[in-house]
Amino acid sequence: MFHFTVNTEKPVSQILKDLEENLSKEQFSILWSFNIKDKLNAKGLEYNQDFYVLEVCNPFDAKEVLSITNQVGYFLPCKIVVYGEQETNKIGMVKPTTLMSILDDANLDSKANEIEQRLVKCIDRSK
Protein backbone atom coordinates (compact mmCIF):
# COMPACT_ATOMS: atom_id res chain seq x y z
CA MET A 1 0.00 0.00 0.00
CA PHE A 2 1.17 3.51 -0.73
CA HIS A 3 -0.21 4.85 2.56
CA PHE A 4 -0.34 4.19 6.28
CA THR A 5 -3.75 4.90 7.85
CA VAL A 6 -5.20 4.14 11.28
CA ASN A 7 -8.70 4.42 12.74
CA THR A 8 -9.49 6.18 15.99
CA GLU A 9 -12.53 7.04 18.03
CA LYS A 10 -10.96 10.28 19.27
CA PRO A 11 -12.55 13.55 18.19
CA VAL A 12 -10.66 15.41 15.48
CA SER A 13 -9.72 18.28 17.82
CA GLN A 14 -8.01 15.82 20.19
CA ILE A 15 -6.27 14.02 17.32
CA LEU A 16 -4.81 17.32 16.09
CA LYS A 17 -3.60 18.21 19.58
CA ASP A 18 -2.07 14.77 20.15
CA LEU A 19 -0.41 14.75 16.74
CA GLU A 20 1.24 18.10 17.38
CA GLU A 21 2.59 16.84 20.71
CA ASN A 22 3.81 13.51 19.34
CA LEU A 23 5.38 15.05 16.26
CA SER A 24 7.25 17.48 18.47
CA LYS A 25 8.81 14.56 20.35
CA GLU A 26 10.37 13.47 17.04
CA GLN A 27 11.44 17.05 16.21
CA PHE A 28 8.74 17.46 13.56
CA SER A 29 6.65 20.58 13.50
CA ILE A 30 3.38 21.36 11.75
CA LEU A 31 4.23 24.01 9.18
CA TRP A 32 0.68 24.40 7.92
CA SER A 33 -2.75 23.00 8.70
CA PHE A 34 -5.39 23.19 5.99
CA ASN A 35 -9.02 22.72 7.05
CA ILE A 36 -10.68 21.59 3.82
CA LYS A 37 -14.20 21.62 5.29
CA ASP A 38 -13.94 25.27 6.37
CA LYS A 39 -12.35 26.34 3.06
CA LEU A 40 -15.03 24.68 0.94
CA ASN A 41 -17.84 26.03 3.12
CA ALA A 42 -16.32 29.53 2.90
CA LYS A 43 -16.51 29.22 -0.89
CA GLY A 44 -20.22 28.38 -0.70
CA LEU A 45 -19.73 24.65 -1.21
CA GLU A 46 -21.45 22.56 1.42
CA TYR A 47 -19.04 19.99 2.82
CA ASN A 48 -19.73 18.47 6.24
CA GLN A 49 -16.87 16.01 6.68
CA ASP A 50 -13.91 16.99 8.86
CA PHE A 51 -10.77 16.85 6.73
CA TYR A 52 -7.41 18.36 7.65
CA VAL A 53 -4.17 18.25 5.71
CA LEU A 54 -1.11 18.86 7.87
CA GLU A 55 2.26 19.63 6.35
CA VAL A 56 4.96 18.45 8.73
CA CYS A 57 8.71 18.76 8.65
CA ASN A 58 11.81 17.85 10.60
CA PRO A 59 14.38 20.43 9.39
CA PHE A 60 17.36 18.16 10.09
CA ASP A 61 15.90 15.35 7.99
CA ALA A 62 14.87 17.78 5.25
CA LYS A 63 18.41 19.16 4.99
CA GLU A 64 19.87 15.66 4.91
CA VAL A 65 17.67 14.36 2.09
CA LEU A 66 17.93 17.59 0.11
CA SER A 67 21.72 17.25 0.34
CA ILE A 68 21.39 13.96 -1.52
CA THR A 69 19.18 15.36 -4.30
CA ASN A 70 17.06 18.45 -4.73
CA GLN A 71 14.38 16.31 -6.38
CA VAL A 72 13.31 15.29 -2.87
CA GLY A 73 11.86 18.79 -2.64
CA TYR A 74 8.94 17.61 -4.76
CA PHE A 75 7.85 15.50 -1.77
CA LEU A 76 8.46 17.99 1.01
CA PRO A 77 7.03 18.65 3.45
CA CYS A 78 5.47 15.35 4.50
CA LYS A 79 1.68 15.35 4.67
CA ILE A 80 -0.51 13.80 7.33
CA VAL A 81 -4.28 13.80 6.89
CA VAL A 82 -6.94 13.64 9.58
CA TYR A 83 -10.50 13.03 8.47
CA GLY A 84 -13.83 11.60 9.42
CA GLU A 85 -15.30 8.65 7.58
CA GLN A 86 -18.61 7.12 8.58
CA GLU A 87 -18.49 6.41 12.32
CA THR A 88 -14.75 6.79 12.85
CA ASN A 89 -11.89 9.19 12.33
CA LYS A 90 -8.72 8.39 10.44
CA ILE A 91 -5.11 9.55 10.56
CA GLY A 92 -2.94 8.76 7.57
CA MET A 93 -0.01 9.62 5.36
CA VAL A 94 1.60 8.65 2.10
CA LYS A 95 4.59 6.51 3.03
CA PRO A 96 7.89 8.36 2.55
CA THR A 97 9.42 5.10 1.30
CA THR A 98 6.85 5.01 -1.49
CA LEU A 99 7.56 8.58 -2.53
CA MET A 100 11.33 8.28 -2.33
CA SER A 101 11.31 5.04 -4.33
CA ILE A 102 10.22 7.07 -7.35
CA LEU A 103 13.68 8.69 -7.38
CA ASP A 104 15.41 5.28 -7.51
CA ASP A 105 18.32 6.48 -5.34
CA ALA A 106 19.69 3.90 -2.90
CA ASN A 107 21.11 6.72 -0.76
CA LEU A 108 17.55 7.75 0.15
CA ASP A 109 16.14 4.33 1.02
CA SER A 110 17.33 4.00 4.61
CA LYS A 111 16.61 7.63 5.47
CA ALA A 112 13.09 7.37 4.01
CA ASN A 113 12.51 4.23 6.06
CA GLU A 114 13.74 5.93 9.24
CA ILE A 115 11.51 8.98 8.67
CA GLU A 116 8.54 6.74 7.89
CA GLN A 117 8.97 4.70 11.08
CA ARG A 118 9.13 7.86 13.19
CA LEU A 119 5.99 9.27 11.56
CA VAL A 120 4.19 5.95 11.98
CA LYS A 121 5.09 6.05 15.67
CA CYS A 122 3.65 9.58 15.94
CA ILE A 123 0.43 8.53 14.23
CA ASP A 124 0.09 5.38 16.34
CA ARG A 125 0.61 7.36 19.54
CA SER A 126 -2.05 9.84 18.44
CA LYS A 127 -4.84 7.37 17.68
Could you please describe the fold and organization of this structure?
The protein has 127 residues and is α+β, with helices and mostly antiparallel strands. Helices cover 46% and strands 28% of the residues. The chain has five helices and five strands. The protein has helices at residues 12-25, 36-42, 59-68, 96-101, 106-126, and strands at residues 3-8, 29-35, 51-57, 78-85, 88-94. The longest helix has 21 residues, at 106-126. The protein is globular and about 45 Å long.
Write the layout of secondary structure elements.
Blueprint (H helix, E strand, L loop, with lengths): L2 E6 L3 H14 L3 E7 H7 L8 E7 L1 H10 L9 E8 L2 E7 L1 H6 L4 H21 L1
Antiparallel strand pairs: 1-5, 2-3, 3-4, 4-5
Helix pairs in contact: 1-5
- Element pattern in H and E: EHEHEHEEHH
User: Number of DSSP strands?
Assistant: 5
Rg (CA only): 15 Å
Class by SSE composition: alpha+beta
Condensed summary:
This protein has about 130 residues and is an alpha+beta fold. About 45% of the residues lie in helices and about 30% in strands. It starts with a strand and ends with a helix.
Structural features:
5-stranded antiparallel beta sheet, single chain, globular, 5 helices, alpha+beta, 127 residues
